[in-house]
Amino acid sequence: RVTIDKKYIEKSSKLMDKVAKFCQQSKMNLKNSPPYILDILPDTYNHLRLIMLRYEDRLQVLNECEYFRIFLDNLMKKCKEAIKLFREGRERMFDENSQHRRSLTKLSLVFSHMLAELKAEFPDGRFIGEEYRITKSEAANFWRTTFRHKVSAGTIIQWSIFRQELDKVHPISSGLECIALKSTIDLVCNNYISNFEFDVFSRLFQPWTNLLKNWNMLAVTHPGYMAFLTYDEVKARLHKYIHKPGSYIFRLSCTRLGQWAVGYVTMGGEILQTIPQNKSLCQALIDGWKEGFYLFPDGRQVNPDLSGLLEQSEDDEERITVSQEQYELYCEMGSTFQLCKICAENNKDVRIEPCGHLICKSCLESWQEMDNSTSPTCPWCRCEIKGTETVVIEPYEGDKK
């Protein structure tokens, strides 16, 4: 068991530096677009330095933090993988279309996911662990009630244990499905699942009741889904269909983990990429099909029908019943609980996650057009919006009298 100290962090720093030097070779001609490994590695080192600064007088806390130990072990392994790739690939690393170069791109995405996870678990350099807020309430409840009694499981759990527990509520049908599921959810490829990775997965394939059904339809059988693909690779892939408007593919956004990015060919022969806001991917793909934008997944003629998934999601919409106390409180203010407090015209029909504030859809969209934050924020509390949920508010019975 290694001791985590400044010396150990410097060892990981030297490995990252070695990878960076390989990537800086002029013949590599790396494009400065996400995930840009020459930004990711220094950012990772800087965040590790910040963590060490916060804990410099109590390093035993870091040594007892299982998540941090697993992270550092994985960081070193991934750096060694990258170094091995350069040593074995040699000249092939300079060919943007080679398999070795594709492997480096995938590693860049993994490093990007690792940095996002580290910043989520150590915001401002301080470990929050099980205090990390899982966006979807049902997913958060599953994680909390299932893993809280296991060692460090408030933050991270071995894949084998996670799989067994998930199978109890969302049956996993076969060994092949299990392998495919792991490749989707294990973003940092370390055989563990963190609360951060679980949060990302449950946001991508919402709602909770249809979690694995949605995942199967969208990530396993859908021809438009692309795993571990970057912005530039989406453009390159869609270029083949430049004369076939309506061709599209979708991937996990690497800059906004937990959201989708859809790339498509326009009528004018442009390739655009968009991140759907305030709607599930399923809804976005159906809307895009109706509007003529998303017609041919990866250029194919047959576009899967997702309406069945959407109908199930609508059946599962959460219904919020107004209590007598809420009814009386809002009566005193000359209003009703269900009325949106921004426009005072529409009923609230969206819950912002994870903060839980309620708002109407049109006010949320108007706010997001005005909001200049780097990440979308709640108009009430300014917390980051990681997801939204459509809700139906049922008035208090006394309201009808």
TrEMBL record:
GO terms for cellular component: cytoplasm; membrane raft; plasma membrane. GO terms for molecular function: calcium ion binding; phosphotyrosine residue binding; receptor tyrosine kinase binding; SH3 domain binding; ubiquitin protein ligase activity; zinc ion binding. Keywords: Calcium, Cytoplasm, Metal-binding, Repeat, Transferase, Ubl conjugation pathway, Zinc, Zinc-finger. Its main location: cytoplasm. This is E3 ubiquitin-protein ligase CBL. The keyword Cytoplasm applies. The N-terminus is composed of the phosphotyrosine binding (PTB) domain, a short linker region and the RING-type zinc finger. The PTB domain, which is also called TKB (tyrosine kinase binding) domain, is composed of three different subdomains: a four-helix bundle (4H), a calcium-binding EF hand and a divergent SH2 domain. The lineage of its organism: Eukaryota, Metazoa, Chordata, Tunicata, Ascidiacea. PANTHER family: CBL (PTHR23007), E3 UBIQUITIN-PROTEIN LIGASE CBL (PTHR23007:SF11). CDD domains: SH2_Cbl-b_TKB. Pathway: Protein modification; protein ubiquitination. It is found in: Cytoplasm.
